[in-house]
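note to self — DONT lose this again. spent like an hour looking for the file last time. sequence + predicted structure for the chain T wanted, 339 res
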Amino acid sequence: MHHKALQLVKYLCGKIKSSKPVYSRALLILKPPLLLAAELGVCEVVEEIIKTYPDAIWFTNEKNHSVFHLAVLKRQEKVFNLIFQMSGHKHLLLMSQDVDGNNILHLAGKLAPEYQLHRIPGAALQMQRELQWFEEVEKIVKPNYKEDKNSKQETPAMIFTEKHKNLVKDGEKWMKVTANSCSIAAALIATIVFAAAITVPGDYADNGIPNFYRATAFKIFSISDALSLSSSVAAIIMFLSILTARYAEYDFLYSLPKRLIWGFLMLFVSLITLMVAFCAAIFLVFCNQKAYWLLVLVVVSALVPVFMYAVSQFPLVWELFISTYRPGIFRKQGTRVLY
């Protein structure tokens, strides 16, 4: 259906281009679908219309918003990339203002539509995405645009701060609740592995040396227990740094997401090594009794919490990683000459 719809768009555009007078018919017929496609992020329709009638790039709505402005205002990444890769008039489009005197950086400073924000999990990630948009648009405009004022005497930075103050508060609350919950789990693991370190399996001999100190399983237990303790303490430190952060706007761009990523990873490492230490301790106790079915049952049961943690937290960690470390919103591709 998508392919057939695109074929229909190409056919209609060709018919309009061959009709006379071209401009009036294009303005009447192509303008509404072009602006709507820019708002909805249907870049194929935008590309086909502009390829057919290049002057459609100048079409604007009642607020003097072109497809470039609408892509920024509605946070349509694909449409913006399409227009940005065009040769020719993109810099002229960046210079235009709407009826309220807003340049394109003012529009980037406004809050994204709710349906776009809801696609991103967590208020902190939503705030990070908004900062990425503002920062990327800031890179492609002239330096004096940062200080331009609209009809209300507002600069882009002033608009961004005003429109995103509630999102900053929500992001702070989300980060603190997440960090607090995870720090409790990390503290519990640290307590368990510290207790296990001073009560080793098999007890001690009369000379104070553990009875199983020559066994390979005991070495595995000792190393895993030490790794679990160090990683859980590291996780507590990372989550504590989140709880004590200042929560300025730009902290949501890199600082806070990186701390949360490392906190989650350290917590995951501590959980894995805790389960390895547990399995090694059980093996030391039951290895001489040849209760292999019991050992298999213990290993399988130890994998359950690791699997549950991975399934429940991996999507969030992956989203954090991609959002923080990806190259940027605007793909650096070769210029596509559409007109």
